[in-house]
Amino acid sequence: MNQQPIFLKPVFQERIWGGSKLAELFGYDIPYAKTGECWAVSAHPNGQSVVKAGPYQGLTLGELWSSHPELFQSESPVFPLLTKILDASDDLSVQVHPDDEYAGEHENGELGKTECWYIIDAEPGAEIIYGHEAKSKEQLVQWIEEGNWEGLLTKVPVHPGDFFYVPSGTIHALGKGIVVLETQQSSDTTYRVYDYDRKDKDGNTRELHLDKAIDVTTIPQSYKKETYDTFTQEGLTVTSFVSNDFFTVQKWDLDGQAHLEAGKKYMLCSVIEGQGQLTTGDNQYPLNKGDHFILPVSFGPYELNGSMNLIVSSE
Q1: Residue 202 in 3-state DSSP?
Q2: DSSP secondary-structure letter at 4?
Q3: For residue 32, how far is the Cα from the chain centroid?
Q4: In angstroms, rounded to a whole number, what is the distance separating the alpha carbons of residues 52 and 227?
Q5: What is the pLDDT of residue 57?
Q6: Could you give the percent of the chain with pLDDT greater than 70?
């Protein structure tokens, strides 16, 4: 018997740097004037997606993970991934994330945070911070203490369609005018290095975490542009961005029809452009821009039709 795709209702997070593009680009009913994050596929305690329909309707993803392990067949004790869409209407803080070992020791057993970005939208001239120019820990500390951000931080221009892999230990920040789909470990641990001396809604400057940030930052750390493998099957072109111990991330560009078999792992799917249809057996499911769903391990042969772009990830 074919399983159904599991469609999820996202959770939205207010952020000082957020805006309204999640509503403008995806038609989401956002709850805040500064909505910065759509947690689209999430079982993290700070914001859980909820199953929209079908036999598991109303369950959080965390509850589904615990009560129906047969859908996932994973060895991870917690749902290990988190898919977000971020609206950086203003600059994000310059930050760095720990790896699993450091987070486990210093953040109450939280996972580390390795992540990656697919650039959905970027205003002309938009750029990110990726990496730094310090050649030693001493130089890193000196430049941070001096506030020599121009000397320290590496800026990279971005365009729609770009992809960036951001392993733990990477100093990074999205710049204003960028919308990304982010695939990451299921973690909410961030160490702020610099926040432009901004004040929150209560007039306070936001906390920095310099000691921990210096502890976990990789040195040296320079940006290198990557190239990616692509293959076409029927009407589907698949670009493989990254595959490692944390996640595999691909972009699927559909133009027409493709017949597919379920993989050996469950898959997280996000429609970032266009629309189409998923058919399995006698069941048909419309797919629209902004939809997020999981194909469980036991999902049988299926067919995709339409013109759409998806980001697809798995453990």
Answers
A1: coil
A2: P
A3: 20
A4: 37
A5: 97
A6: 99
Average pLDDT score, the chain: 95
- Quick one: tokens of 146? 């001096």
Query: d(Cα 298, Cα 304) in Å, to the nearest integer?
Result: 17
The average pLDDT across 98-126 equals 96
* pLDDT of amino acid 1: 44
- Interval 30-66: pLDDT, tens: 999 999 999 999 999 999 999 999 999 999 999 999 9
Looking at the structure, do residues 152 and 265 belong to the same domain, yes or no? no
Contacts within 8 Å (CB) and 24+ apart, 49-52: 49/8, 49/9, 49/10, 49/11, 49/292, 50/8, 50/9, 51/6, 51/7, 51/8, 51/9, 52/7, 52/8, 52/9
Q: Are residues 94 and 168 in the same domain?
A: yes
Question: What is d(CA 104, CA 119) in angstroms, rounded to the nearest whole number?
Answer: 30
The tokens for 214 are 């210096």
Dihedral sign from CA coordinates of 236, 240, 243, 249: negative
Taking the C-alpha atoms of residue 251 and residue 69, their distance in angstroms, rounded to an integer, is 26
Domain-located, residue 289? yes
Is 192 a residue of the active site? yes
Q: Which of 97, 174, 180, 178 is nearest to 128 (CA)?
A: 174
Condensed to tens digits (0 to 9), the pLDDT of residues 212-236 reads: 999 999 999 988 889 999 999 999 9
Order of strands, sheet of 153-157, starting from the edge strand that comes earlier in the sequence: 153-157, 127-132, 172-174, 94-96, 191-194
Residues 234 and 192 in one domain: no
CA distances from 41 to 26, 200, 248 (A): 16, 28, 15
CA distance 166 to 244: 12
**Residue in 15, 192, 198, 206 annotated catalytic:** 192
Q: Domain with 247 in it: what CATH number?
A: 2.60.120.10
Q: What is the number of structural domains in the chain? A: 2
